[in-house]
Amino acid sequence: MRSRSTSLLSIAAVSALLLAGCASTAASEPTETAPAAEIVESSVSEPAAVGERVGADGAQLEVWSGIVPDETAAGALGDAEAGTQWVTANVAQWVTDEDLTGADVAPVLRSTADDSFSAEAVAQQSVDVVMAPGKSYSYVWSFQVPDALVDAATLVVCVGEGDEGCSSLVAE
Fold first, then answer.
1. Mean local confidence (pLDDT), 102-112
2. CA angle 64, 66, 67 (to 5 degrees)
3. Cα–Cα distance between 29 and 103 in angstroms, integer?
4. Structural contact between residues 69 and 79, judged by C-beta atoms closer than 8 angstroms
5. pTM of the predicted model as reported, rounded to 2 decimal places
6. H-helix or E-strand containing 138?
7. Distance between CA 72 and CA 75 in Å, rounded?
């Protein structure tokens, strides 16, 4: 009986030591880390490649994949307007400013074939979550594109309304 009690006490002591180690506090000073990815200079006419991070005005994005055209988007968003088709981009996004939501930094779709074309993003999920600076957020953005411009080779996703911070929508 004594060896059984000793074994149980030993197990309890080891468990207490392990739990004490888990409860210890972290270092009081945060450590500096290198940026996860370099921001590539890009524009509408010279977009970055899929998988490269682009940015402008405190917002950054990285296109992971695109679907041109996206016939499945209608299931989440409804049918596209007559004469248009849905195009979808799966992206990671980051911000540098506080108190911004996904809706605040929604990307814009542009076309190298038509300088006047610009499409607003429509989210397939909730975008009212406040984004923390430096943290990555994944979004699925869809855009209504006129039938004549639905061409993966000419569509680019841009961080904002300007001509900088743009990425190809699909890998070449």
1. 95
2. 150
3. 33
4. no
5. 0.77
6. strand 137-146
7. 6
